[in-house]
Amino acid sequence: MKINPIMRFEQVSYIYEESKGCALQDVSLMIPAQMRTALIGHNGSGKSTLFLHGTGIYKPTHGQLFYKEEPYRYDRKCLRELRQKVGLVMQDPEHQLLAATVAEDLSYGLCNKGLTDDMTRKVVAEIAEQFGLTSLLDKPLHQLSLGQKKLVTLAGVMALKPEVLLLDEPTAYLDRYHVDILLDQLEAIWQQGTSIMLATHDLDLAYGWADWIIVMHQGRVVLQGSPDEVFQQKELLHQMKLGVPLIYEVWEIVQNAQETSKRGNDGDERTVVKRGYEEPPRSIEAFQNKLAR
Amino acid sequence: MISRIDSVAHQNALRFLSPQFKVMFGIGMLITVLFVTMRVQWLIFIWMSLWILYYAKVPLRFYLYLTGASLLFFVASLPALMLEIEWYKQDGLIKAVSRGWTLIDTMGYRVYFDSKNAILVSQLLSRTLAATVCMAFLLLTTPIHQIIQVLRKWHIPEIILDLMMLMYRFLFILFATAREVWIAQKMRGGHGNMAARVKDTGRLVAMLFQKSMRRYQQMNIGLQCRGYDGQLRVISMEQSMKSRRYLLEAVCGMVIAVLLTVFSLMM
User: Fold this and answer.
1) Which of A11, A60, A114, B226 has the highest local Cβ count within 10 Å?
2) For A203-221, how does the pLDDT look when each residue is reduced to its tens digit (9 = 90+)?
3) Can you tell me the distance from the alpha carbon of A35 to that of A193, in angstroms, rounded to the nearest whole number?
4) What single string gives the DSSP state of each residue in A83-94?
């Protein structure tokens, strides 16, 4: 599979002024274009710092970042252009929602972009429609639920139509219903051609959703590849106390059980035909289908 | 109280009336109150109450609570306004005492109520009530973001409006955070007695300050991510309604208030 990176980190290191340790250490990774990437790792593994580098908020102490193979430049004009192309949704929506009402907040990035008032109103109406926020447009932000606030944050970022969308633990503290809504929206965004990178602790979510997975541990990138490639490194993942997705583990148990039952039926180990490696299913539906077969 | 004011401002019956009209009317009446006579001030109080309770359909109980709370400041200043202290015994000689109703008389000192002050207090009460109700009209019928939009049209400096917007936005977060910290303290046996209450309140304030600073740093990052360039430019999607009937009543009311004052001064 040929992977075309839209954003690339090359040996990036970053040290916070207030702490002695390295938040990022020789991080080299790529965010594949028009793919869904999941970034997994423990708290403090450097995921948020990585995202802040991606939007040019932090400048690496060492190393270099590339956007479409062009090195990052940190002058005001370039950063402004970069932030139109790379959108960041922070973990806590309260940090990103600035205006008084939903409509005003959605219009904020568009006004900064220099759109006319009429054009801004048109885009706000469209984006509100897309995210199911039309009925909330005049509502003050402090009266929204957390799920609604997260959607407004996402809509506010997507109003600028970025090419890359970075989401820092978007499903944190959300109930199942709001997680489903959010994932549906992300699916639609991805279908429109936006490259998405999502940081999460939820391995099941990462496994079911992502096309590309990056694992970080103590400021370093430990693994990156397709979900199957990454989760085959079970030993390493267990050493890092990350584990593997539940569906992956259950699939292995089922396969082992099937092999054992075959041995038990004819009682002769030599007749056991080892099946070739079969990629584990990535959703419950796929799991059921494979079992049925 | 603030969140209740905010929700009333977002739900009242005059919500969709032009904010420009409401702001101009509220401020216009507030200025009018400063120049008209006491009787006209009472009339304005009744008329503005009608706007709030009947036209805007603000709940009576909340309206009374809000005006009552504002009047507490007036009540607190009453002793200073109404009472006089006099030292009438000097070097064994008794001076002529002023007229008034004596409340305390001890060691040559006399605390008394001067009837002349009653007039001053009633003048002040009528003015305070009328002005409070004009302000309440503005607060209870116009959400803050609408007021900011109007001020923007009036070319008030952007920095002031940006600060207003951020303060409005983060005021509720601050209250919510304070409440969370307070609950956390209560759940762990805090605020048990007076001394603990003082101590825990101090901790709460210190924690709020720390959290506010952290939030400020994060907000700074959030602003930069969204292309902040020194100005918080936003536009509103609200469609406001213009009403001739309300405009006519407001203009007529203001003219009548001024005419009544002129007439009473001429008499």
Assistant:
1) B226
2) 888 888 898 999 999 899 9
3) 8
4) HHHEEEE-SSGG
Does the beta-carbon distance from A98 to B145 stay under 8 Å? no
**Mutant choice from B214, B220, B237 vs A, greatest count of A C-beta within 10 A:** B237
**Cβ within 8 Å, pair B165-A100:** yes
Say yes or no for a CB contact (<8 Å) between A99 and B232: yes
Q: Which residue has the tokens 């309300």?
A: B246
Contact of A2 with A177, CB cutoff 8 Å: no
Q: ipTM score of the complex? A: 0.74
User: In this structure, which amino acid lies at residue B191?
Assistant: H
Contact A213, A33 (CB under 8 A): no
Q: A164: Cβ–Cβ under 8 A, 6 or more apart, which residues?
A: A6, A7, A31, A54, A85, A86, A87, A194, A195, A196, A197
Residue A35: how many CA atoms within 13 Å on its side-chain side?
A: 23
How far apart, in whole angstroms, are the C-alpha atoms of residue A132 and residue A188? 13
Rounded to an integer, what distance in angstroms lies between the CA atom of residue A91 and that of residue B3? 25
Provide the CB-side half-sphere exposure for B136 (13 A, CA).
32
